[in-house]
Amino acid sequence: MRIESLGDAIGAKNKWELRGMDAIALYLAKKYGWTIEHCRALSIENLLVALHEELKNHRNPNLIPVLDVVSDCFDNLKKIAKR
After folding, report:
1. Among 72, 66, 61, which Cα is nearest to 44's?
2. pLDDT tens figures, 48-73
3. Residue 28 · residue 20 · CB < 8 Å
4. CA distance 74 to 76
5. Which of 10, 30, 56, 72 has the greatest number of CB atoms lying within 10 Å of its CB?
6. Three-state SS string across 21-82, please?
7. What CA–CA distances, in Å, run from 61 to 22, 66, 73?
């Protein structure tokens, strides 16, 4: 799995020179108002949650198993919240 490929796609879509994790950090900073430092410090698990919608629309077959895990986590959290 290469989450960096999503960053490449985000950078290209926004016509940035940034690619990979740098593009992801900038995207998240703009989307959520977080600092670049905060975005860079996120664990891979937290990045996957923060980028859930973007990953859903990204057509990288290597990320599909990860999306299934993230979706399962969301489903489990919803069940716990309803208790």
Report:
1. 66
2. 889 988 877 776 555 555 555 555 55
3. no
4. 5
5. 10
6. HHHHHHHHHHHHCCCHHHHHHCCHHHHHHHCHHHHHHCCCHHHHHHHHHHHHHHHHHHHHHH
7. 22, 10, 20
**pTM for this entry:** 0.69
Q: Range of 78's domain?
A: 4-82
**CB-based contact 54:13 (threshold 8 Å):** no
- Per-residue tokens: 64: 């599909």
Pick the residue with more confidence: 23 or 1?
23
Structure tokens at 45: 């698990």
Give the total number of structural domains in the chain: 1
The pair of structure tokens assigned to 52 is 């859930």
Please tell me the distance from the alpha carbon of residue 27 to that of residue 19, in angstroms, as a whole number.
11
